[in-house]
Amino acid sequence: MNKRLAVSIVAASLFASGSAFAQSTTAAGAANGARTGGEIAGPVGEIVGGTVGAAVGAGLEIPNAVITSIPRDEPSVVVHERVVVGEPLPDTVVLHPVPRYTEYRYAVVNDRRVIVDPRTRRVVRIIER
Fold first, then answer.
1. Distance (Å, rounded) from C-alpha 25 to C-alpha 87?
2. Region 27-42: what's the mean pLDDT?
3. Nearest 5 degrees, angle CA 31-CA 13-CA 38?
4. How far does the signal peptide extend, from start to end residue (predicted)?
5. Mean pLDDT calculated for residue range 45-50
6. Could you give the C-alpha distances from 126 to 32, 49, 67, 96, 114, in angstroms and in order?
7. Calpha distance 81→45 (Å, rounded)
8. pTM score
9. 66-83 pLDDT tens trace
C-alpha cells in the first residue's frame, strides 16, 4: 500500500468518525461515514469510512474514560418514556457535562446512566448502574 493511499484512508476514517458523532444511529453513521470516506479516498475510503461511521454511530467508540467520569451518586430523573439509543431525551431531563469531555453530556434517567449528544439531545449510549 503506498503512503498516499494509507494517509487518505486514515484521513477518511478520522473525518468519518468525526462526522458520525453527529449521528446517533448505526445506519446514519455508516451512511455519513461512507459518503465522507468516499469523497476523500475513493472506494477504499468508502469502505473504511462506512465501517468507522457505523461503529461510532452505534456509540462503540465512546472512551471508557467518559463512562468512568460520570458520577454514580447523581439522583435519577424518572420519565415515563422508555430511554432508547438514538432517541432524544425529554426536555425535562437536565443534561450535565461529562468532566474533561465537552462533546458529551450525561443524565441519569430511570436509574440508568445515559451519555447524550448535547446538540441533538439524542442518547448515544446507555450504561447500566
1. 9
2. 70
3. 55
4. 1-22
5. 72
6. 23, 24, 10, 15, 4
7. 39
8. 0.52
9. 777 788 788 888 888 888
Q: Give SS3 for 118.
A: coil
Other C-beta atoms within 10 Å of 53: how many? 32
* Nearest CA-CA partner of 37 in 59, 56, 53, 58: 53
Cell of 13: 476514517
Distance, in Å, from the CA atom of 57 to the CA atom of 54, rounded to the nearest integer, reads 5
Q: How far apart are CA 7 and CA 121, in angstroms?
A: 34
For residue 120, the tally of other CB atoms under 10 A from its CB is 14
Distance of alpha carbon 61 from alpha carbon 76, whole angstroms: 25
How many other C-beta atoms lie within 10 A of the C-beta of residue 78? 8
